[in-house]
Amino acid sequence: MRTFVLVLLLTLACLQSDSPASSSGKLKGTVCWPLNFAGITVSVNTDSQVQRLLGKGVFRQDEGHTGGRYFIDLNRTATLHIVEGVDQVIEDLTVTEGVSHKFTIPEQTNAVSKWFDPHEPFGNYHALQLGSSKGMVLGNLGEPQRRVTPDKWEYESTCACEIPSYLTFSFKAGRVIQVELSDEE
Length: 185
Known about the structure:
The chain has about 180 residues and is α+β, with helices and mostly antiparallel strands. It is built from four helices and eleven strands. The chain has helices spanning about 1-15, 45-55, 105-110, 135-140, and strands at about 30, 35, 40, 60, 65-70, 80-85, 90-95, 145-150, 150-155, 165-170, 175-185. The strands form two sheets. Strands 1, 4, 5, 6, 7, 8, 9, 10 and 11 form a nine-stranded mixed sheet that branches. A two-stranded antiparallel sheet has the order 2-3. Strand 6 and strand 7 (about 90-95) form a beta hairpin. About 35% of the residues are buried.
């Protein structure tokens, strides 16, 4: 019971620190929620779980530690790229507008997954998605921890276990065109 209460208090503290009304206790450029998209949580889920949720997609063995998978949405407007780390645990998940030209036509067909929705929301209160403006990202998450370039912003997840985790946005014409959820090794 004591453990349950402690976990509940830590969760509430995390949620409170991410609320828009309470930015005083929050570190600049941090988020406190699992880095999750399409039912996949970075550093938690494994490749077999990805396949159960999204299908086989297109597998590339020469990526990450043990391979990577690609998925394309039904309308062929976006690509989901998942990279496996040690023990096939997901270490990187990237959602990008458009479909890569490096796929053959049969591979594009195999990569289509009806369970991948590129418009799935993320961010605090699920207020962001591909296509969100820079202003929307700033309003939802605050200033980034690091501006890699003017069009690439990085936030750190402070609720990750042991391995630092990052949420990175890439923009084009002021809109989010790519979101990367990743662990640092």
